[in-house]
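Our working data are protein records whose layout never changes between entries. An example says more than a description, so a record of this kind follows.
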Amino acid sequence: MSREIKVMAGAFIGMGVLHFVKPGPFENIVPKALPRKTELVYASGVVEIAAGAMMLHPRTRRLGGLGAIALLLGVFPANLQMTADAVRSRRASAWYKAGTILRLPLQAPMIRIAVKAARS
């Protein structure tokens, strides 16, 4: 297993746990049109932890990679919402705004790593 898969699996598990420890920031980026924000945050946390854990074991790595791909695509609207809110905000710093914008293209290499996990 490559180092990048290990790192991404660890990041998924860590971020998934954060969905339960500090759900507020995640609830804030759920697109406004979606109901039941807390439940969506918890559900995505479960999927994130499961996908991360599954990518660590050879027998479940393919399913974990596929789950990671689905999750990354599924939460992309939340990332767009976060960026839109930051850009519109008068209180957000220029650094925060830039960070949310620069974060969007980082989804591509994360999906590439998840594809690599799914193929291994």
Remarks:
- The chain has one domain: 3-74+106-119.
- The mean pLDDT is 95.
- The chain is about 80% helix and 0% strand.
